[in-house]
Design a protein that fits this description.
single chain, 456 residues, alpha/beta, Aspartate Aminotransferase, domain 1, Aspartate Aminotransferase, domain 2, 2 domains, globular
Length: 456
């Protein structure tokens, strides 16, 4: 019997029957059917019925250069034809070495050691384990508690969820989670003073504090400036606590520098602390004491092609694990750790940043978005229009029930693929924005918003 033709309706029905979709209430799939995508072309995704959608959120914040990028395709194909995979325990290969060396160079050598994982949550798990194990190797096993920030998101495995403060993800699994100390988010008044009091209270027991630099993503694109990050670095140093910078969403150019943390090494921005400038000169040569003890990368590191995460850390952390005793080594792995094909894709991403003018293009792209969306600030139902680099967001007042779902469905009719977070609409597009594209996006978002609010 011939298979059903590949149409939206047939593929959506098959998917509902067989695929358990992530972060999805499966009972709603009849009302909100999954879109069966069959092709990607630059910023566009094309469904089985031939309709196209602008990928305004970069395939869950992963896609940097557009879909079906030729350079990434070629890098993946070359590596697949030579060495697809070899275990990284006892073996090594050039793509893993090149990637680790390239990331080390981007930190000026401050973070000289790369440990590879599979996804963002695993990077969080690795950093938490590595921090606690470091203190154990230093003869301080009591330093095994963690501080997270209100509204922070760091993944959905049990360890990562323990330092996540987004109720929709956390509440159902709360009995399984490790207790974590919660401090105010950095955009809140008095946050640094509260964090300082908590660090003093946990004297000798806190292993690390984890933060999303510049933008708290999953809690609604809540933004803060680099000056509070510099103060946070100083507090962690003062109290002997590791600082973990979760750049899974905000790394790889999203804020205008490859690492979001680089904004702390440059002069404060003159137009407002939540819209840092691009391509700034650093205040002075950075050392390991200027950087976090751990930086986590994932999502964009392979340009939206393959799953990979990286934990970068310092000589101090790395050296604490060197010993004839195997139990003092870092005991974490998965079968595809440092997969050669995945590393080759990430090396192509680094090459693009290193050998092209991408970081010089990003300020123009961010400016085009800012100019195009500026009139939206006058909309009577829009508040807190804000932007950091290539991330733009606004909140909608009196949005009604199931606003995110209704907005997502209406956006499809305007050739947009976009998923609000509650009543927060945000864009995190691929780095393919020019002035006409930005104007089209602003018009499509405005038309979608007006349609949804009229229907409410």
């Amino acid at each position: 019997m011939a298979l059903n033709p590949l149409t939206n309706a047939t593929l959506a029905a098959r998917s509902r029957a067989a695929v358990w979709h992530p972060c999805t209430q499966m009972a709603r799939l009849d009302a909100v059917p999954p879109l069966p995508m069959v092709r990607g072309d630059g910023p566009w995704l094309i469904d089985a019925d031939g309709r196209r959608y602008f990928d305004a959120t970069s395939a869950w914040w992963t896609n940097l250069f557009g879909h079906s990028d030729v350079g990434l395709q070629q890098a993946i194909a070359r590596q697949a034809a030579t060495l697809p995979h070899v275990m990284l325990a006892g073996c090594t290969h050039e793509p893993a070495i090149e990637l680790a060396e390239g990331l080390r160079a981007l930190t000026g050598g401050a973070l000289g050691h790369a440990f590879f994982g599979s996804d963002g949550a695993s990077a969080t798990e690795i950093a938490l384990k590595m921090s606690a194990h470091f203190w154990r190797n230093q003869g301080q096993p009591q330093k095994c508690e963690f501080i997270a920030l209100a509204g922070g998101y760091h993944g959905e495995t049990l360890g990562a969820l323990s330092v996540t403060d987004v109720p929709i993800f956390r509440d159902a699994y709360a009995p399984l989670l490790r207790a974590t100390h919660l401090a105010p988010a950095l955009h809140e008044p008095g946050a640094l003073a509260a964090i300082e009091r908590l660090l003093a209270q946990l004297d000798g027991r806190c292993a690390a504090l984890i933060v999303e630099p510049l933008i708290q993503g999953a809690s609604g694109m809540r933004m803060h400036g680099p000056e509070v990050l510099r103060a946070l670095r100083a507090l962690c140093t003062q109290h002997g606590v590791h600082l973990i910078a979760d750049e899974i969403a905000v790394g790889c150019g999203r804020t205008g520098t490859f690492f979001a943390w680089e904004h702390t090494l440059a002069p404060d921005e003159v137009e407002g602390s939540t819209t840092p400038p691009f391509g700034l000169r650093y205040r002075r040569p950075a050392t390991s004491t200027d950087w976090p003890d751990f930086v986590l990368l994932s999502k964009g590191i392979t340009g939206g092609t393959l799953p990979l995460s990286v934990v970068l850390t310092t000589d101090t952390v790395f050296n604490a694990f060197l010993s004839p005793d195997v139990a003092r080594g870092f005991l974490h792995s998965h079968s595809y750790t440092g997969n050669a094909i995945v590393c080759a894709a990430a090396c192509e991403v680094l090459r693009r940043f290193r050998e092209t003018d991408l970081l010089q293009q990003l300020p123009r792209q961010a400016h085009a978005l800012r100019e195009a969306f500026a009139p939206l600030a006058q909309h009577p139902r829009v508040t807190a229009l804000r932007q950091t680099g290539m991330v733009l967001a606004f909140d909608v007042t009196d949005s009604g029930e199931r606003f995110a779902e209704r907005f997502h469905l209406a956006a499809r009719r305007h050739e947009l693929l976009i998923r609000p977070i509650g009543a927060t609409v945000y864009l995190m597009p691929p780095y393919l924005i020019d002035a006409p594209t930005a104007q089209w996006l602003a018009q499509a978002v405005r038309a979608t918003l007006d349609e949804v609010l009229a229907g409410a």
